[in-house]
UniProtKB/TrEMBL annotation:
Signal peptide (UniProt feature, chain positions): 1-22
Matching InterPro entries: Bact_metal-bind_prot9, ZnuA-like
Pfam families for the chain: ZnuA
Descriptive protein name: Zinc ABC transporter substrate-binding protein
Entry keyword set: Signal
Amino acid sequence: MRTRSKLALLAVAAWAPLSAQALNIFACEPEWAALARQLAPGAHITSATHAYQDPHYIEARPSLIARLRRADLAVCSGAALEAGWLPALQQRAANPAVQPGQAGMLFVAEQVETIGQVEHVPLGAGDVHPEGNPHLHLDPERMRKAAAVLSQRLAQVDPQQAGAYRSRYLRWSLAWQQRLDDWRQRARPLKGQRVVVQHSTFDYWWRWLGIEVVADLEPKPGVPPTPRHLNALVAKVEQNRPLAIVHSWYQDPNSAHWLAERTGIPVVSLPSTTMAEQGLETPAELFEYLLQQLLDAHHAD
Ligand SMILES: [Zn+2]
């Protein structure tokens, strides 16, 4: 018994310096926190937003400033997704490690190609980003590239663990490849299907699946649905007979339901990111769920 408690004490003593050194990772969105947990399970990881929040607009709360102040590495989508709140956080946190251009500040969209880049945003086009669509985590291929980038960045800010990050990424990547093959095969019946969306959140996912977007409940990117715009969509939706009217968990579902009542097209509410409390803890669980929801809608059709 005595030896045991002594051993336990020794174990605590051996752990203490390690946990004190654990890397602090600040993710702007839950998917990057989830990915970081896979690649750096020993790190302290927090996310600034959750699945029921619109990542385009959050408040720069003091608790977030404190968390960013402690961070060794910040991981965000970039492509101006966080333009409305992250700069204020960076400024108030005054943490040199996570300022723009530092190794500790990773904008995934700067490392992984985005779709929908435009050279000139026409006046009155709405919330269009010249850097392209920032919701790139919803492409399973780009998620893998993001994992490669993140593991390299982890090795850069925490060089003592570089070997561990590399081997963990390699294992993760192999498992991911198997999942990709499986998803690709199961997703085949969805190819050529059509959907109505609310915002460009899932554009990468539709593209990967070969699904066509026939209408957007937003009259312009980032502009909430208006009665006039919704009325104009009724005939278009009836003509195209899409698989579903899709909105994100964080969005008000009323517009989608309004259109569903008039057209008979079902509403599908999808998470745009991971959420452990809903059983979607890892990126793989998220994609699995997204795919299954759409396959269910297709089978019910
Ligand atoms: Zn967006």
